[in-house]
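User: Hello! My lab partner asked me to get a predicted holo structure for this protein. The small molecule is adenosine-5'-triphosphate, SMILES included with the sequence. Please write out the structure tokens.
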Amino acid sequence: MTDLQKGEEAHEAKARLLIVDDEESMRYYLKRTLRRHHYQVETAESGEEAIRLVEEQPVDLALVDLMMPGVDGLGVLKKFREIDPEALVILMTGYGTISTAVESMRGGAFDYITKPFETEELLLLLDRALAQRATLRENRELREIIDNRRAYAGLIGQSRSMRSIFQTIDLVRESTSTVLISGESGTGKELVARAIHFNSTERRGAFVPLNCAALPETLFESELFGHRKGAFTGASKNKLGLIERANGGTLFLDEISEIPLASQAKLLRFLQEREFLPLGGVEAKRVDVRIIAASNRDLGLEVETGGFRQDLFFRLNVVPILIPPLRERREDVPILASHFLEQFARSRKKVAKAFANEAMIALSNHDWPGNVRELENTIERLLVLHDEKPVLGPEDLPEQIQGKIQPRFAVKQDVGSFREAQQLFERDYLTEVLRQAKGNISQAARIAGLSRPNLHRRVSDAGLDPNDFRQV
Ligand SMILES: Nc1ncnc2c1ncn2[C@@H]1O[C@H](COP(=O)(O)OP(=O)(O)OP(=O)(O)O)[C@@H](O)[C@H]1O
Ligand SMILES: [Mg+2]
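Assistant: Hello! Below are the structure tokens for the protein in complex with adenosine-5'-triphosphate.
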């Protein structure tokens, strides 16, 4: 990269400001001053023009005169906040009365500045506003990243197939290779897509999902590529396509097998050229987007029967990820079941419950036609139905699952490490001890032949709460 390019990039990183003032001398002065301080500056001479500009392309901060003919400063403020609830607006007022100031702050202005002002005063105010916005954004991004990055966006599994999926995620997350995820409904395709996106440190843009099955052909293209005002009846303003919203990030094309044939050609063209034309547009746009597609149908088969273009299939199938149904990786059931148990308990601010051994075996032996989603729903329902029970036994399970109780390890399954088996045993054991002691720690310690502190530590390590056993 040349120094010139670097310089341009640094300049590009500087905030984009919009000055809205009906007074030409003011626009001229502000534009010159702020450009000298390396801001990117655009101007508008009326509220209406400002709104048009911002609808077209958002700015980082708008400096808006309060008193203007037509749409005034407060009107612009209101409209900007409608377009972007985080829009940063500073109002300029020649009157500086308390009432307008209060009103503008209530309307969501960052601050106001009274004309005439010193350049220095304005620069400080801009700095403060942009810094605060950056902090808010970073915080939100961090929260999102932490939430999602923790254990691969919450993706869980220890079976061999899931372990190999984790490996693939690690391999592709920093690249922009197209990924095609296949698997039955409810196997976790969207979650895998999110894991790829949110575990990437490079891709800071958004994760934008589009369900291809939910859209008729005409809407599909305008959703994906956007449209210009007047491109078709009903296109009353310019609209940004999802592909652009995903710039720097990931576009998730869910149920890709359902995309209309006509649109397949357009999508293929985009994948080849990395360029697209909004409906009614004249100039092709370039974006840097990673595409992840998902399907619960066998796309290869769809190609054979003519429902899906072969060339598009090849373009999508660069990195294939196949998620097997849950019944083919039963060793994931216990860990998923415990995870959901904990998750629901947390969201309802309760202490997590446990499954008795036989219940866990029955869950593992069930076939789960709805896969992980069905397991998740089943457990949520169990918790609602058996709110008072700390330990769920096989008798609490739905009938069709109860029938699946068989001796442990009767089904060929991954037995897990010694440590995991020990943890499982300890939890079951302590649950039974607490139940007999009705949650009384001293009594439980006596039954178990452990010291009180030792028992207490083991109980909390196992995620159990003696209080849960008190009323039983
Ligand atoms: N390995 C997993 N770990 C944790 N949760 C999972 C896992 N797999 C799936 N889930 C959960 O199961 C539910 C279904 O997953 P997801 O929506 O990703 O499935 P899908 O394959 O996209 O299904 P569909 O084809 O019906 O859209 C979600 O709530 C998801 O969080
Ligand atoms: Mg899905």
